[in-house]
Amino acid sequence: MKIACDVDVLAKEMSVSDYVRVVADWGFKYIEQSPHIRINPIYKHPLFSRDCEKEYKKALAETGLEISSFIGIYRWSGPTEEERRMAVANWRRLVEIAVNMGVGVINTELSGSPNDENMCNGMWYRSMDELLPLFEKENIRVEIQAHPFDFCEFNDETVDMVDSYRSDNVTYVYSSAHTFYYDNGIGDVRHMLEYAGDRLSHVLIADSFNHKLNYRYIQNPSWLNKRGKVDATVHQHLPMDEGDVDFEVLFETLRDTGFANRQLKIGGEPIICVSYFGFPERMDETAPKARERIERELLNR
Hints:
Blueprint: E1 2-6, H1 8-11, H2 16-25, E2 30-33, H3 50-63, E3 66-72, H4 81-100, E4 105-109, H5 117-137, E5 141-145, H6 155-163, E6 170-175, H7 179-182, H8 189-196, E7 200-205, H9 247-256, E8 271-274, H10 283-299
Parallel strand pairs: 1-2, 1-8, 2-3, 3-4, 4-5, 5-6, 6-7, 7-8
Helix pairs in contact: 2-3, 4-5, 8-9
């Protein structure tokens, strides 16, 4: 099992070389490369100039770190055909970048609209039909996660969509920060992880509040989200035990299901990633602490 650190908040404040060194100083061996303005910007065509690639490879070589995975977020679910076609082109370029960097895993979202669910569902399948032969040819594992404000926010339904392809190249990501969207506020972590079963290849670790509980959030105007369309969704990526997610059950279930020792045919070992976005000023403390807990809980270190 690879334990990675998502560098999203670091990349907003420092250079590629600097955040690679920081992650190494925190004791991680792997980086999850989230959308980056110079590499794989969200929704836009990937960039990654020769200079940027050279800088990244040099920093990795000097620290001994590796990239566990890229995150690609593109409108491959439309809802318009033009958006979908552009997203497929973006995907093709990101696969080229991943192969060139020796990375066999791309973590992604459905990236549709909750206000056009059926159209986005069809668009996603159209894109997957086009791209799966490329993923298979290049030996890339593409991991799908449901996300708040997407055409599907639910754990079980997204697992079923992943499983419908019956492909070792397509697996599932569980993001603990999205737990309460995954089952409409119940937060039954054990059920969701067990339902994903062997299709689960990647877990994102962060805490969040249960938005379904009274007064966790006070939103104005008061009718927000009650007029038949989703106007906004809210969640956090907090350090563990600062929200409502049951991490005792989460780690217990990962142990019970053998996640850390799972054998995957494509993309190497399963990945668990510290995905903290809130309070970057505390990351020096919270990120290493999270790594240590993951090692203790799943690797008996």
